[in-house]
Amino acid sequence: MTIQENVPLAPLTTLQVGGSARYFAELRRDDDVREAVQFAKARDLPLFVLGGGSNLVVADSGWPGLVLRVAIGGITTQSTDAPGNAVPFSVGAGVNWDDFVAQAVVQNCAGVECLSGIPGGVGGTPVQNVGAYGQEVSDTIESVRALDLKEDRTVVLPKPACGFRYRTSIFNTTERGRYIILRVNFRLKRGGAPSLKYADLQKHFAGKKTPPSLAETREAVREIRRSKGMLIVPGDDDCRSAGSFFKNPVLGEAQFKDLAERAESRGLEIPSYPALDAQRKVSAAWLVEHSGFSKGYALGAASISNKHALALINRGDAKASDIVELKDEIQHGVQEAWGILLDPEPVFVGF
Ligand SMILES: Cc1cc2nc3c(=O)[nH]c(=O)nc-3n(C[C@H](O)[C@H](O)[C@H](O)COP(=O)(O)OP(=O)(O)OC[C@H]3O[C@@H](n4cnc5c(N)ncnc54)[C@H](O)[C@@H]3O)c2cc1C
User: Fold this and answer.
1) How far apart are CA 49 and CA 70, in angstroms?
2) Tens of pLDDT along 284-343?
3) Pairing relation of β-strands 63-70 and 20-27?
4) Which of 178-187, 196-205, 303-312 has the lowest mean pLDDT?
5) Residue 285 DSSP class
6) pLDDT computed for residue 81 by the predictor
7) Taking CB atoms and a 6 Å cutoff, what residues make up the pocket around ligand 1?
8) Given pLDDT bands bounded at 50, 70 and 90, which one contains residue 273?
């Protein structure tokens, strides 16, 4: 295990802002992760676990302690060839998420095809229960293997223990900072049909005579994402972001009714979808665009993406403080217009 000092973090994130890590280690084995944790403990250093850096805003002052980047690789599976069979995959936290999806699709295994093109590592996906185009990673996760820093031992958390909900899990709520995810175990369906619940996907395949394959669905998702700046494409400034910057608000019945009435009084209809427990999930992008902000709206070197109202981008030389200033302005504007405080999706590191 090598510990480096004063390592710039901006190049390790998709938003590309922020300062340096006082100490930094990239770790490929469980034992190295343990050793790095001991290094931090012995010096009383705060620890931050970095994945692919695609859901982060790192402070301009950087991180004063140890940044531990989990680079554990390996995708193992069992061959059960019969269509319809559940196929277990055990995937190292450091494997690139989209490489895993590609491999699942090549092996004709359904369950993650709609999550194609999401950047970052496999270990980051359970943290906010990543989701897109009608699938969530929790639909196929069976368990998560992690180093439990509280108990100082490796544990395997079965799915119910992970507390998955919309963009949350125990890893980013009740047990934040407690676990370092080492591997994620999935169960996919050999020969399963692709999930086509989402309107964008249905539109893409409208008029197609035969049902799309998993590979065609994967390509469609990547294409739709590319058009929205939600795929990392070298040279596309609109993807220098942390993805969606705000979560879609989930409202109770009364709050939703109030919002819908406000919209109606302005001759507008707010896009919404059913959520758990009689709640409604409301489009955060719609709220942003109906609060005086449009795609491309800029505040100095930070702006809203030209392709997606929910992505805040670094136009080239933005600082973390520029991104935060823009975030504050949008939150304030939406609250003034609609009485809703948007909740940011990325993790703020070192603030
Ligand atoms: C262009 C773009 C599009 C995106 N589209 C989507 C989308 O469609 N849906 C969606 O849900 N998200 C999306 N995201 C957000 C992001 O890609 C996901 O949240 C991703 O899973 C984050 O993984 P990461 O490895 O990059 O984690 P990081 O950004 O490095 O870290 C995020 C959080 O996870 C923690 N973490 C990471 N790895 C581990 C580990 N091994 N153990 C413990 N904690 C860990 C970190 O400490 C941090 O709190 C998008 C981002 C971008 C830039």
Assistant:
1) 7
2) 999 999 999 999 999 999 999 999 999 999 999 999 999 999 999 999 999 999 999 999
3) parallel
4) 196-205
5) H
6) 63
7) 14, 49-56, 70, 93, 118-121, 123-125, 127-128, 130-132, 179-181, 230, 232, 239, 241-243, 347
8) confident
Catalytic residue set: 167, 244, 345
Q: In angstroms, what is the span from residue 125 Cα to ligand 1's centroid?
A: 6
The interaxial angle of helices 97-106 and 214-227, nearest 10 deg, is 150
d(CA 70, CA 144) in angstroms, rounded, equals 14
CA distance 198 to 224: 12
Query: pLDDT digit string (tens) for 4-14?
Result: 999 999 999 99
pLDDT at 136: 97
Sign of CA dihedral 138, 142, 146, 151: positive
Q: Residue 118, exposed/middle/buried by CB under 10 A (0-12, 13-18, 19+)?
A: buried
Closest CA to 109 of 84, 73, 141, 144: 84
Contacts of 325 (CB under 8 A, 6+ apart): 299, 300, 302
Helix (H) or strand (E) holding 34: helix 30-43
d(CA 162, CA 50): 19
